[in-house]
Design a protein that fits this description.
Radius of gyration: 22 Å
Shape: elongated
CATH architecture of the largest domain: 3-Layer(aba) Sandwich
Order of helices and strands: HHHEEHEHEEHHEHEE
Helix content: 25-40%
CATH class of the largest domain: Alpha Beta
Oligomer: single chain
Number of domains: 2
Distance between the termini: 34 Å
CATH topology of the largest domain: Chorismate lyase
Largest sheet: 6 strands, antiparallel
Length: 241
């Protein structure tokens, strides 16, 4: 005779909450029902609910705020570290092997506006820099920050920011970056980039847009990276299981 093994109670709660986060019932930034509400809904004890919430927190689905409850962070990344060029775009120390080319307010281009989810032409602060090696410039990185986030920070100042720009924003504005999206395309170098990169007019470049978000889904900043194809070889290692 075959016996059906019942699903553990904590797993039933865990799977239900995770499914609601995935389908948008509980959106990023939203609060989960209280522990007592979950106990009533699933007809389980508080330790069972706490076990389910603990696993969700450990796996990056939710975060707890003392005295306030549990809040949705969103679907965790699929795994693996960000490539070095992506980390450089948002975490590179501007005082190390970089040249600041421009700092100031600009109007958001269509690409920047789309990345930051703002109307085209909205003022944003730009920090444009390039990284130089013995072979010549290896990238141009333009970071764009909404005005309301930049105000009260050093982002509008011409001096290099020591350490990660995201860490700087977190310390000054209490805005924590939770995840990022990346869009990569290959194209011919733009005439405005030729001199800055020191490449021929027919050079192929990799162009990447990286947007860093809060757990609520609100953008914090967008970085546009341009890398000469002749000076880059991208390699990665990842599991196949």
């Amino acid at each position: 005779m075959a016996y059906e093994i019942p699903t553990p109670k904590y797993l039933r709660v865990l799977n239900a909450l995770r499914a609601r986060i995935e389908d948008g019932t509980y959106a990023p930034g939203a609060g989960l029902p209280s522990e007592s509400q979950l106990c009533t809904e699933f007809d389980v004890s508080r330790p069972t609910v706490l076990r389910a919430l603990g696993i969700l927190k450990q796996d990056g689905w939710i975060e707890s705020q003392q005295g306030k409850g549990s809040f949705v962070r969103g679907r965790p990344p699929s795994g693996g570290a960000a490539p070095q060029y992506a980390r450089d775009a948002v975490d590179l120390d501007e005082g190390a092997e970089t040249e600041i080319l421009h700092v100031g307010a600009v109007l958001a281009t269509p690409r920047v506006a789309a990345a930051l989810d703002i109307p085209e032409g909205t003022p944003v602060y730009e920090r444009r820099r390039r990284t130089v090696s013995a072979a010549g410039p290896i990238d141009l990185i333009s970071t764009y920050v909404p005005v309301d986030i930049a105000v009260g920070t050093d982002i509008s100042k011409p001096d290099p920011i020591s350490g990660s720009i995201l860490d700087h924003i977190a310390s000054r504005k209490r805005l924590r970056a939770d995840y990022a999206t990346e869009r990569l395309t290959a194209r011919q170098v733009d005439p405005s980039e030729v001199d800055a990169l020191g490449v021929p007019k027919d050079e192929a470049v990799l162009s990447v847009v990286i947007t860093a978000y809060q757990s609520t889904g609100a953008p914090i900043l967008a970085s546009l990276i341009v890398m000469p194809g002749s000076r880059h070889e991208i390699e990665d290692t990842y599991p196949l299981s």
